[in-house]
Design goal:
Helix content is 13%, strand content 60%. It is mainly beta. Strands 1, 2, 3, 4, 5, 6, 7, 8, 9 and 10 form a 10-stranded antiparallel beta sheet that branches. The chain starts with a helix and ends with a strand.
Length: 141
């Protein structure tokens, strides 16, 4: 009976996402080519996300944005025993940036969605630009 219990416990661990980097693409495209995303998993949590995104939602100045590369490295999104995760990662550099994620790891791949947000204070006043829902798929590198 002890051996069976041990196997069941190991099976539960195997479902969680292995630590490492997962690289892939998002549903946003620039010049017809899908934008890139890289997710880092450490000790059962999503700890870092680097992605290219445009943030067209918000005031008119957002619609003209060419976007850029975003690095979210503050926060930890716990991956449950079913491989699912959700929550917000942030970066506070020059401007407050955040991204809300939801997704699921399955084997050596992950899929889900994100919504990036950038708060800006310019000569035109304070405003917030967002990406809207952006889907992604990535595989362990």
């Amino acid at each position: 009976m002890l051996a069976v219990t041990g196997l069941v416990a190991l099976a539960g661990v195997a479902i969680a996402a292995p630590s490492g980097t997962y690289s892939g693409t998002t549903s946003q495209k620039l010049g017809g080519k899908p934008d890139s995303i890289s997710l880092t998993v450490s000790h059962g949590s999503l700890t870092r996300a680097v992605f290219v995104a445009r943030l067209p939602h918000g005031p008119a100045s957002c619609a003209n944005s060419q976007g850029g590369t975003f690095t979210m490295n503050r926060g930890r999104l716990k991956i449950n025993k079913h491989g699912k995760f959700s929550g917000k990662l942030t970066f506070h550099g020059g401007l407050p940036e955040s991204a809300t994620f939801t997704g699921r790891f399955k084997g050596t791949s992950v899929s889900g969605s994100l919504n990036a947000r950038l708060e800006s204070d310019s000569i035109h006043g304070a405003h917030t630009c967002t990406s809207g829902k952006v889907t992604f798929r990535a595989k362990r590198s």
